[in-house]
C-alpha cells in the first residue's frame, strides 16, 4: 500500500537557523529487493546534513537495518543513488564505487551494532585501535602494530567517553553499556563523517541506554551525522534532531521529533503502537 508522506521538514531550509547546513549525503530514489522479497525499500529520498542526530523508526521488518547497511556499503542497493559530498573533492555515488573506493567510504562511515562486535579476549585499548585497521597496512594490522599517534587518539577517545579506567581490561569483562562505548570509540578511530547505529541500545538497561544516547549526542555535537535505528519514541523525542519514519519500505514521515503525534505513530506502527510508548 502506497502511503503519502505526512510531513517533510527540509533540513537547511531558510528560516530554520538552528538546523545544520552542510550536506553530507543525498539519497535519491533508493530501492532494495532481495531475491526472496521484493520492495524491501521503495523510492527512499532524503538528504543528510553534518551534525544531525537522525532516528530511523518503524515497525519490525520496515526496512530500517537494510537502509543502514546500504548506506554503509555492506549491502548493495537495487536501484537509485547515494551521493556523498566530501568537504574537499568530487561527489561520490556510494552505489557505484570500486572496491578500493568502497574501503575508503566505509572508513568515512562508522557503524555500531546491537551486539557491539568487539573481540572479547582483547583488551579495551586494542579493541579501539582495531578501528584503524582499514587505514593500516596489512602487515601492521596482522601483528596489531599501531603507532603512537593512534594510541594517543584511542586513549583520548576512551577518556572522552569515560572508559579510560578500563583500557587494559579484557572486553569480555565489561558491561553491555561499557562495551557499546568502546564500540563507539572504535568507530571514531576512523574519523568518520557519519556514524550509523543499528539498534545500539536494544540490549541495554535504562541507565546504560541513556549513557549510549548521551555518547551519540556528543558525537553529533562534534559535527558527525548520526543515524540511529530506534524502537523507543520517547528516546527519539528526547535526543534526536530529526526523525525518518519508514513503513513497508517507504518513508512516510521526515521531520521534527515533536511532530510524531498519534496519527503518525498509527501509520508507522499500526497495531504495534502500544509497544513504542
Ligand atoms: N538478506 C536478506 N534476504 C532476504 N530478505 C531480507 C534480508 N535482509 C532483510 N530482509 C527482509 O527485509 C525486510 C526488512 O528487514 P530489516 O531488517 O531491514 O527490517 P527492520 O526494520 O530493521 O526490522 P527490525 O526492527 O526487526 O530489525 C524484512 O522483511 C526482512 O525479512
TrEMBL record:
It comes from Acerihabitans arboris. This is Phosphonate ABC transporter ATP-binding protein. It is found in: Cell inner membrane. SUPFAM superfamilies: P-loop containing nucleoside triphosphate hydrolases (SSF52540). InterPro entries: AAA+_ATPase, ABC_transporter-like_ATP-bd, ABC_transporter-like_CS, ABC_transpr_PhnC, MetN_ABC_transporter-like, P-loop_NTPase. The keyword Aminoacyl-tRNA synthetase does not apply. NCBIfam families: ABC_phnC. PROSITE patterns: ABC_TRANSPORTER_1, ABC_TRANSPORTER_2. Keywords: ATP-binding, Cell membrane, Membrane, Nucleotide-binding, Translocase, Transport. Pfam families: ABC_tran (PF00005). GO terms for cellular component: plasma membrane. One of its GO terms (molecular function) is ATP binding. The keyword ATP-binding applies. Gene3D superfamilies: P-loop containing nucleotide triphosphate hydrolases. It is a peripheral membrane protein. Residues 25-273 form the ABC transporter domain.
Amino acid at each position: 500500500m502506497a502511503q503519502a508522506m505526512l510531513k517533510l521538514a527540509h533540513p537547511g531550509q531558510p528560516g530554520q537557523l538552528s538546523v545544520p547546513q552542510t550536506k553530507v549525503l543525498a539519497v535519491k530514489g533508493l530501492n532494495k529487493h532481495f531475491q526472496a522479497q521484493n520492495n524491501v525499500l521503495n523510492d527512499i529520498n532524503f538528504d543528510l546534513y553534518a551534525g544531525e542526530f537522525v532516528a530511523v523508526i518503524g515497525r519490525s521488518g520496515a526496512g530500517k537495518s537494510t537502509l543502514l547497511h546500504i548506506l554503509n556499503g555492506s549491502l548493495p542497493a537495487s536501484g537509485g543513488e547515494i551521493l556523498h559530498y566530501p568537504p574537499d573533492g568530487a561527489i561520490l555515488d556510494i552505489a557505484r564505487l570500486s572496491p578500493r573506493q568502497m574501503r575508503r567510504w566505509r572508513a568515512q562511515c562508522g557503524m555500531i551494532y546491537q551486539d557491539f562486535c568487539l573481540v572479547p579476549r582483547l583488551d579495551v585499548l586494542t579493541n579501539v585501535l582495531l578501528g584503524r585497521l582499514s587505514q593500516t597496512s596489512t602487515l601492521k594490522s596482522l601483528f596489531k602494530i599501531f603507532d603512537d599517534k593512534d594510541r594517543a587518539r584511542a586513549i583520548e577517545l576512551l577518556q572522552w567517553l569515560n572508559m579510560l579506567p578500563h583500557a587494559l581490561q579484557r572486553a569480555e569483562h565489561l558491561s553491555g553499556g561499557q562495551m557499546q562505548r568502546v564500540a563507539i570509540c572504535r568507530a571514531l578511530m576512523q574519523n568518520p563523517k557519519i556514524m550509523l547505529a543499528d539498534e545500539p541500545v536494544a540490549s541495554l538497561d535504562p541507565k546504560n541506554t541513556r549513557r549510549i544516547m548521551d555518547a551519540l549526542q556528543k558525537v553529533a555535537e562534534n559535527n558527525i551525522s548520526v543515524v540511529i535505528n530506534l524502537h523507543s519514541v520517547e528516546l527519539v523525542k528526547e535526543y534526536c534532531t530529526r526523525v525518518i519514519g519508514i513503513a513497508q519500505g517507504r518513508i512516510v514521515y521526515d521531520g521534527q521529533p515533536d511532530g510524531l503525534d498519534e496519527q503518525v505513530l498509527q501509520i508507522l506502527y499500526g497495531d504495534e503502537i502500544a509497544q513504542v510508548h
